[in-house]
Design a protein that fits this description.
Layout (H helix, E strand, L loop, with lengths): L36 E2 L2 E2 H5 L2 E3 H6 L21 H19 L3 E5 H4 L6 H19 L5 E6 L18 H20 L4 E4 L5 E2 L7 H21 L5 E4 L9 E2 L4 H10 L6 E6 H6 L4 H10 L3 E6 L17 H13 L8 E3 L10 H28 L2 H7 L7 H7 L5 H11 L9 H11 L1
Parallel strand pairs: 3-4, 3-12, 4-5, 5-6, 6-8, 8-10, 10-11, 11-12
Antiparallel strand pairs: 1-2, 7-9
Helix pairs in contact: 3-5, 5-6, 6-7, 10-11, 11-12
The structure holds D-xylose and nickel (II) ion (2 copies).
D-xylose binds next to loops.
Amino acid sequence: MTILGDKEYFKGIGEIPYEGKGSDNPLAFKYYDAKKVVAGKTMAEHFKFAVAYWHTFCGQGADPFGPGTQDFEWDRAGDPMRAARDKADAAFEFISKMGFGHFCFHDFDLVAEGPTLAESERRLSGIVDYIKQKKNGSGIELLWGTANCFSNPRYMNGAATNPDFDVVARAGAQVKMAIDATIALNGENYVFWGGREGYMSLLNTDMGRELDHMGRFLEMARDYARAQGFKGTFFIEPKPMEPMKHQYDFDCATAIGFLNQYGLQDDFKMNIEVNHATLAQHTFQHEIAVAAKAGMLGSMDANRGDYQNGWDTDQFPNNVMELTEAMLVFLEAGGLQGGGVNFDAKIRRNSTDLEDIFHAHIGGADTFARALIAADAIISSSRYAQLRENRYASFDTGKGRQFEQGKLDLKDLYDIAESNGEIAAKSGKQELFENIINQYI
Ligand code: XLS
Ligand code: NI
Ligand code: NI
């Protein structure tokens, strides 16, 4: 089997080359040069760009007000296994033409869920075998797999946190099968995004009990995967709301506290999505900084929100300023731990040409690349790092140093303050910092 199936889906579009920012070719990278070394690693190694199966090959542009507009050829076969193989052919053709090395999926992105658990499992293992063959020699790897435990109506009250144990057990079966599929495809990581793990109303919810159930469920999933020989990292993907009013993995700080409380901190890290950060009233940079501080900066879901709309619009990244600020923290943290940059983004409903999918991914990769180059230059050539360090210089020697070393007590602080008298103002210099970022973009 070759990367291309029997049919070529993206006709007239070849491999996307890197041509540099002087190029006017819309089907070329302007900044993303996979082999270019930045801060000691190639761009391909820094990012490990992944294509999200659900948005790029499953979603057809439907929104709450109307059906899909993107009538993709690979979705036309009536038979579910035939359709799944066509979709896999289209996916591998697209990913290889983009020159990316990874993809991510939910179990039932790969093939439509069957009418029974047994039939679903039969379908899944069939398509996993097919994708396994396609992967062979393609250089395309699975960044992570996950289970869709939020679309089927049975999960309307939650999956692992459902008040009905039978639904929890059903979610367990699904996660087991998704872990099996991930391992069979040599997946590097496994993700939990708790779309319905939360509540619509606290009046009918025992939050404490649901959190305990979620902790136990994740522990069981980890133990099962480890027993099957899975060596990768588990990621929690925080999101504050949508579809639920409140989701338990609200943001990184909340999810990290949860993992520590339930003893899961050694196996789990964060998968941080830009649009989820902004929904939580944070910046992407903030979420990365929180995860990095905890040693849990695992992976990223790349997209962006919209200033006017309050939901997860999942647009392709194009905000260089936002990503440059994020890349500063990313580089200072030494990059991602095991994960990569997954384009959890979709073209707009009125983007109906096949080439729009290419434009979207080219733009996303170029924005990340441009931000990485800028951030590296800011760290290595500007006064940025020094200026920030200088703000803390009083902790480098004398009493400040002793404070950091734990050698002072509260009475010592009192004595120091008393002998100091009033303290001169020291500027935080925010505008100067902002100007440095602007200078290097
Ligand atoms: C939804 C999430 C979802 C996860 C995977 O908002 O971003 O797509 O990435 O379940
Ligand atoms: Ni996501
Ligand atoms: Ni999302």
